[in-house]
Amino acid sequence: MPRYKPVNLQQNAFVPISFEKQILPGTFEYALHYLLDQIDLSAFDAAYANDKAGARAYHPKILLKIVLFAYSRGVLGSRRIEALCREHIVCMALSGESMPDHATIAAFISRSPKAIRSVFHEVLLVCDQAGLIGRKMFAIDGVKLPSNASKESSGTFDELKNRADKFERAVARMLKAHADEDTRPACQDLLAQQQQQMKTLQHHTTRIRDYLAKHQPKFGPKGKERKNKERKSNITDPDSAKLATSKGVIQGYTGVAIADADHQIIVEAQAHGVPQEQELLQPILDDLRDNFQDLNLTDNILKEAKLTADAGYHSEANLAYLSEQGCDAYIADNLFRKRDPRFADADKYKPSKALPKRVTAKDFDYDPHALSCTCPAGRSLYRNGANVTIKGRTGIKFTAPITACKDCALRSRCLKDPQQKTPRQVVFFHEPTPEHPNHCARMKAKIDSAHGRGIYAYRLGTVEPVFGNIRHTKGMDRFTLRGKAKVNGQFQLYCLVHNIEKLAHSDWAKAA
């Protein structure tokens, strides 16, 4: 039988450790340590009022080092960050063996969105001085991340009111049942369980009633007067929104970032609780232009750099705005890939579907001269919209009579939901003439050209790796806070991790 050396895990050992030697050159923590010792962090001072009385506070530099290092390791919760300060030797070295509790860490992150934005700009200046911002081409895109909000607490105002009424009816039924059981002996455990259930329902009812009394319904950018569909509100986080993703619907925020094409530095980052990225293009570009002016980097970056974006940002209003700004933009539309000759045979690789053919607008008989429309079943539709605008395109809308769709044989293939009571509607858009093209038509011709396709090809390699690094490599795939300002600050912390890592791998870190 072989003999092995014994291992005793219960023995005590005192190992001498130099914290300074744990922060090795060429690493993220080395760049973080050196960078935060150089930039201005005075924006955090306004949150402290202990200059004459009160206990000493942890320095914002130390807390920022702890948080950014934890985020770079995919550790997002404040309790897990607290454990990291006590167990991870590199984190202990960065903080000088400071061990703030989770409440201190959480309060620091949530109360400092403006100061975090100031740090984001300071780091941006360092990136520019290091030659990492080319200012030749930018790419904009967004990522939808869940937040600290309950998806089940969402609904329109009518849905929330109906939910509160339902809870009140449930409590009334339970109280009546208790009254009927007063004459008979009851199980104490069951009685306590029912009382707790009633207390919970009453709590939820009160929350919903208070929310409805203090808030207004949420609508899109056109407002209620344009008959926009009401957006769902959320009780736990009113600033968040229900977002459709490839993996289902989440309750959270859309983090939008603009990345430079040279080294993928994030030059602007914002988080918004809106379901459509389309309406975020103008505000984030305005802030990008103003920030570059405030930092004395350039007078108008929108006129100097090219901009690429995917179809999520394509609309007549956005393209008109970019034209007014003098921005050389390349924004694809939904049919951009179908027009690309390189994808002409893409459909033959898609799996065949044995579903019945859906009835589309192409199946309707539309006469643009007589302004009449007939459905595939032969029923005439009436015109109820001469200039309907959808996503920047203007058209004419026709609606079928209720009796036409009621017993129609094509009902299951024509309507989105065969059980719906509203009849089929169809819109035929006015195509711009060559003599008077709109902005969408100009962008279509521009991006379909060989030059336009070549420029747009850079978008994928510019901004998509940024979100791949943030979400999957670093594990920053959710927001832990509530409220737009706080979530916006946390998203900029995520982007700071990305930018500092770029600095760590650049010549700037070698000279540090």
Write the layout of secondary structure elements.
Elements: H1 19-22, H2 28-36, H3 60-72, H4 78-87, H5 89-94, H6 102-110, H7 113-129, E1 137-146, E2 154-155, H8 157-181, H9 188-214, E3 233-234, E4 241-245, E5 248-260, E6 266-272, H10 281-294, H11 301-304, E7 306-309, H12 316-325, E8 329-331, H13 336-339, E9 365-367, E10 372-374, E11 380-390, E12 393-399, H14 402-406, H15 411-414, E13 425-429, H16 439-448, H17 450-473, H18 484-504, H19 507-511
Parallel strand pairs: 1-7, 7-8
Antiparallel strand pairs: 1-5, 2-3, 4-5, 5-6, 9-10, 10-11, 11-12, 12-13
Description:
The structure is a single chain. With 512 residues, the protein is an alpha+beta fold. It has 4 domains: 19-111, no CATH class; 133-148 and 244-342 and 440-489, Nucleotidyltransferase, domain 5 (2-Layer Sandwich); 157-216; 361-429, no CATH class. 43% of the residues lie in helices and 15% in strands. The protein has helices at residues 19-22, 28-36, 60-72, 78-87, 89-94, 102-110, 113-129, 157-181, 188-214, 281-294, 301-304, 316-325, 336-339, 402-406, 411-414, 439-448, 450-473, 484-504, 507-511; strands at residues 137-146, 154-155, 233-234, 241-245, 248-260, 266-272, 306-309, 329-331, 365-367, 372-374, 380-390, 393-399, 425-429. Strands 1, 4, 5, 6, 7 and 8 form a 6-stranded mixed β-sheet that branches. Strands 9-10-11-12-13 form a 5-stranded antiparallel β-sheet, with no helix packed on it. It has a two-stranded antiparallel ribbon with strand order 2-3. The mean pLDDT is 88.
